[in-house]
């Protein structure tokens, strides 16, 4: 018999507390790469190994993360989000602790793979948990707020990692991760009614990734998210090399660009909920897509006709961030709805698409960095502009008949 509290009966304070726990788990999962980055250059001396082997600890984390995204997306329908969220926290904390005591680079690579695998759990499960904590508009606001917090991780986590390494050595980032994850784990264990009690969908046909890929309405929102975010990430990943090597700039120019971009993203994502309330999700998503397209074309135009000054990039780059900030939360919620409430697979597939697209395009543009900003902006446009085709050729959710599934407990 199910004695757990349904999310609808939770107080506003309890929902905020639950949301904070979910946010914290997701943020710590994202920090898995960035916290350790400052220590990577020291690993060849620490473990008496090569630089190439040391870099494998980053690749191992990403590989584990990709496998974990797909796995947790499938497992959630059978075991329930709450149980898997707790299990992923436990595994992530335990493996992070073990990584600090790795006797060799090979052992560290292996634990990093497992660390990436368990870290993916919170990212996959968070959207579904949050969606069932709040109303549709509340979920848009919560997911937008989560995106704002997550946008700070790549900038702040390496700074924290560098300080930890300088003060306490390379093991400190792993031990701190284990400690913080352990604290979150204790909170959700000691408060069993904290997280939404959403489990197997017994009255639905079993979901699958194949069904999602065939669902064109889902792809409108999922691929739209992947294209806009993937284009932005490709630009961010490649911009430092382009700025320094071909524009006679410095890393400071990149930092200023990022500060402006992230600030604009945070503002846009936090006002998105109010705009959705007034104008509706579809108009906000379309507006975000169009603004991102204008930003990509603006960067390309500058690459062709501009004065090749890296200080100018921040005056255009912010448009990509505003576009993503506006469409991010609303687009994610619409994608989950279009997936017939198969939230976890839908989230996993979106995250895999973002990761794979940005990684593949970053690798694709790497040989052309010598051509300068023009190569990078062409690649960015190739990624982002197809979002217009999704808007034109695939009907939005509001014009498409949808199933209304019921959910049972764990």
Word description of this protein:
By secondary structure, this protein is mainly α. It has two domains: 7-190, Growth Hormone, Chain: A; 209-399, MFS general substrate transporter like domains (Growth Hormone, Chain: A), CATH 1.20.1250.20. It has 15 helices and no strands. The protein has helices at residues 12-34, 43-46, 51-79, 81-99, 105-131, 136-168, 172-190, 209-214, 216-246, 251-279, 281-305, 314-338, 343-365, 373-384, 387-393. Helix 1 packs antiparallel against helix 7 (172-190), helix 5 crosses helix 13 (343-365) and helix 6 packs across helix 12. The longest helix has 33 residues, at 136-168. The termini are close together.
Helix/strand/pairing category: mainly alpha
Helix and strand pattern: HHHHHHHHHHHHHHH
**What composes the largest sheet?**
none
The first-level CATH class name of the largest domain: Mainly Alpha
Distance between the termini: 10 Å
Question: How large, in whole angstroms, is the Cα Rg?
Answer: 21 Å
Oligomeric category: single chain
Count of folded domains: 2
User: What is the 3D shape?
Assistant: globular
| Overall mean confidence score, pLDDT | 88
The CATH topology assignment of the largest domain is: Growth Hormone, Chain: A
| Beta content | under 5%
| CATH homologous superfamily designation of the largest domain | MFS general substrate transporter like domains
Low-confidence stretches: 1-5, 199-205, 404-410
């Amino acid at each position: 018999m199910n004695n757990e509290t349904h999310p609808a009966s939770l107080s506003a304070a309890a929902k905020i507390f639950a949301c904070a726990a979910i946010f914290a788990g997701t943020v710590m999962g994202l920090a898995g790469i960035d916290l350790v980055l400052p220590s990577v250059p020291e690993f060849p001396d620490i473990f008496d190994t090569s630089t190439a082997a040391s870099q494998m600890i980053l690749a191992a984390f990403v590989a584990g993360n990709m496998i974990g995204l797909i796995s947790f997306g499938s497992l959630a329908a059978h075991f329930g989000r709450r149980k898997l969220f707790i299990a992923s926290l436990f595994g992530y904390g335990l493996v992070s602790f073990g990584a600090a005591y790795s006797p060799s680079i090979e052992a560290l690579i292996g634990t990093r793979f497992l660390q990436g695998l368990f870290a993916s759990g919170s990212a996959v499960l968070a959207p579904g948990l949050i969606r069932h904590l709040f109303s549709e508009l509340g979920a848009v606001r919560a997911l937008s707020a989560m995106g704002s917090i997550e946008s700070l991780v790549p900038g702040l986590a390496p700074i924290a990692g560098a300080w930890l390494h300088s003060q306490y050595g390379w093991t400190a980032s792993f031990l701190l991760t284990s400690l913080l994850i352990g604290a979150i784990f204790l909170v959700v264990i000691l408060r069993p009614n904290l997280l939404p009690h959403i489990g197997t969908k017994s009255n639905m046909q079993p979901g699958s990734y194949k069904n999602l890929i065939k669902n064109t309405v889902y792809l409108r929102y999922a691929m739209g998210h992947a294209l806009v975010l993937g284009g932005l990430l490709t630009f961010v990943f490649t911009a430092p090399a382009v700025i320094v090597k071909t524009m006679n700039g410095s890393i400071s120019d990149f930092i200023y660009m990022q500060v402006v971009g992230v600030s604009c993203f945070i503002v846009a994502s936090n006002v998105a909920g109010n705009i959705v309330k007034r104008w509706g999700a579809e108009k906000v998503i379309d507006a975000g897509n169009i603004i991102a397209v204008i930003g990509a074309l603006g960067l390309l135009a500058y690459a062709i006709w501009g004065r090749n000054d890296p200080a100018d990039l921040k005056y255009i780059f912010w448009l990509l961030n505003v576009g993503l900030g506006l469409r991010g939360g609303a687009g994610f919620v619409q994608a989950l709805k279009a997936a017939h409430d198969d939230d976890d697979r839908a989230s996993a597939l979106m995250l895999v698409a973002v990761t794979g697209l940005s990684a593949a395009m970053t690798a694709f543009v790497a040989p052309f960095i010598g051509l300068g900003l023009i190569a990078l902006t062409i690649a960015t446009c190739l990624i982002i502009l197809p979002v217009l085709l999704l808007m034109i050729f695939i009907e939005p959710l509001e014009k498409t008949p949808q199933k209304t599934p019921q959910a049972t407990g764990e």
